[in-house]
Amino acid sequence: xxxxxxxxxxxxxxxxxxxxxxxxxxxxxxxxxxxxxxxxxxxxxxxxxxxxxxxxxxxxxxxxxxxxxxxxxxxxxxxxxxxxxxxxxxxxxxxxxxxxxxxxxxxxxxxxxxxxxxxxxxxxxxxxxxxxxxxxxxxxxxxxxxxxxxxxxxxxxxxxxxxxxxxxxxxxxxxxxxxxxxxxxxxxxxxxxxxxxxxxxxxxxxxxxxxxxxxxxxxxxxxxxxxxxxxxxxxxxxxxxxxxxxxxxxxxxxxxxxxxxxxxxxxxxxxxxxxxxxxxxxxxxxxxxxxxxxxxxxxxxxxxxxxxxxxxxxxxxxxxxxxxxxxxxxxxxxxxxxxx
Length: 340
Known about the structure:
The protein has 340 residues and is an alpha/beta fold. 42% of the residues lie in helices and 19% in strands. It has a five-stranded mixed sheet with strand order 3-2-1-4-5, with helices on both faces. Helix 2 (88-105) links the parallel strand 4 (78-84) and strand 5. Helix 3 (114-120) crosses helix 9 (312-324) and helix 4 packs antiparallel against helix 7. The longest helix has 32 residues, at 236-267. The model has no long low-confidence stretch (mean pLDDT 94).
């Protein structure tokens, strides 16, 4: 097929979602995700259960993606898959499947860095969504990652700040666990924060040099605060839950925005793109929008379905790599700690 008619199958299996997407010339034809609900019982992702579920889900998910796109596997030009970072067992399922299918179809194989996928999701051809101009700053916030990345070109990225301990998603989930909320806790905290007073309780922001983040100290501060208050009032959480959630969210957002302000000042870059599952948080989105007025930023948030782990973001990286002829060999291996 010509370079004007490119079909890419994207496969994502880095954590607990099995996903497949078919892309045609940068536009998404299908984006199928199979969620694994079983982890809710354990308050976090269980790696062994995740990899087993991927094995069960990957064939039907890929089949469904091709069917929804009305594309046969023989029409595919290449298969893109998540090489890392992520859970090793989960990555191995997607990697093995992609390698086998590409080999069987005799088409190119394209390995994708999951973190680059979150960033380059902004370049999916989607009506009503602007693409950030180069260079821009990307802030990727998820259950496993918190990074600020300077993006000078599609594949010229530099991490200029990252968490030294917990990711921002972990901060939400661990705070939620302290408060007796379910997993994942982020959406519930966001919902309750809208009903509470964000300045009801003050939590100290961690002091971290440079553009790096730290959230483990905040989690500990919240734990001690709750323990102290419930000693004198056993119903403290129940009576103040909305205010506690609003105060926690306000503190986390403040940490993120402070670092973005610093990064923008140091680099002179005023275009800010956000990605990762935590970018679905309404308070963070509002704070970024407010930053446009306060700091002169232009902010970019992709379509909701492209923010959480999904295969469309893998497919767009595959598409861009295909245009450059950047293919992987059959001996490519998954890498749990792959860096940008």
